[in-house]
Write a structure and sequence with these properties.
456 residues; alpha+beta; ten-stranded antiparallel β-sheet; six-stranded mixed β-sheet; 14 helices
Amino acid sequence: MDGPEGSAGQPGPAERSHRSSVSSVGARAADVLVYLADDTVVPLAVESLPSLSAHELHRAIREVLQLPDVALEIFALWLVSPLLEVQLKPKHQPYKLGRQWPELLLRFTDAPDDDVATDEPSLQFRRNVFFPKRRELQIHDEEVLRLLYEEAKANVLAARYPCDAEDCEALGALVCRLQLGPFQPGQPTACAVREKLDSFLPAHLCKRGHGLFAALRGRGAKAGTSEQGLLSAYRRVKEGSGDSEREAPLRTHYQAYLAKCHELPYYGCAFFHGEVDKPAQSFLHRGGRKPVTVAINLEGVHVIDNREKHVLLGLRFQELSWDHTSPEEEESVLWLEFDGNNEGTPVNKLLKIYSKQAELMSSLIEYCIELSQASEPTAPQEGAYGPSSAPGSSPPPAQRPQLRRQGSVVSSRIQHLSTIDYVEEEASGVPVRVLLGPSPCCAHRCGRSGLSRCGD
């Protein structure tokens, strides 16, 4: 394989089950199983499976689900397993990529050989990374909205979209409305919500702590507060004006859920696995590494702490430069450079993300920037990662401000990262990078002529 085959990353919990979509058959008719965001299956009887393209399968799924033509832009086919997920281009042949899956795992994951030998991908119909979220506001087809809602809900519940407790409760309340109907005073609503709490809130907000350790961490109080907050938010869910409570269109609540998710800067991202250096705990003791998720969409890059479920670093493309090293050069790394300060001094900061998917992340960043630059005034053509996602003819709305709640999980926590800080000075007219403090990596990397910047 000559280059990245699509947007690849780490799968969510909905993909934890070991399932297969593409069987090893010849040119005869075969059944292909395509999984939707709600884990339901669409079986397709197809001819000449080995030569069938993703575009042809996409069309067959749209016909079965009776989706409008715009679904071609909104959704894409993905190959997903517990080890890797890849968004396919229309020209890709899922059967052939399925046969190459062990090679992809060896190239883009650190999975043990035994896991590589037994891993098998499933074919999934999911949101296209390159579809602008502002265009979702123009969608009125209920089935399209339902599929987008189901995928967003799965990402919220899995904490792939980290949310503050208040936002989780507001989103969970809409799920309650969709699953349980309108809130009815006097009905045993609290029991119904409590029995299915993990269907409405992420798992880390559902845990009921016991004992001293839970008390010290405050998790028991947080869980109880979230449950009560969920019920209060459920009570406040509004129905469509002029509609009876039971006949209010579900579309209204799907749209409300998606609109709330749009406030999250990483909505619609492709997800990648990596590690970052922890800050040194003392002069002699290095901090080790922590696992992170790198979320990339059309707007920027976010580095998310897997354990704490919060953002460590969030950057729009205008705010960063990037580069990557391949395993042939040294350990596979994605480099992010951004402005910061060191004890009050303005500095450039370099973050080192260790990941065998660094090449994929770098290519996705580059392509997202190309799309954003080409979106006005002409529509982009199909590029290295998939079909175009040209915005509509109407001007884009004003940029939504980022959440600024104090302590929000969306806010960057740069102090929890170990970065290389440097300033640029001139010596005899030649720019020189001067390191500030100890470097957590090979210093020769800082002597490079510069990383790729948005607009280069």
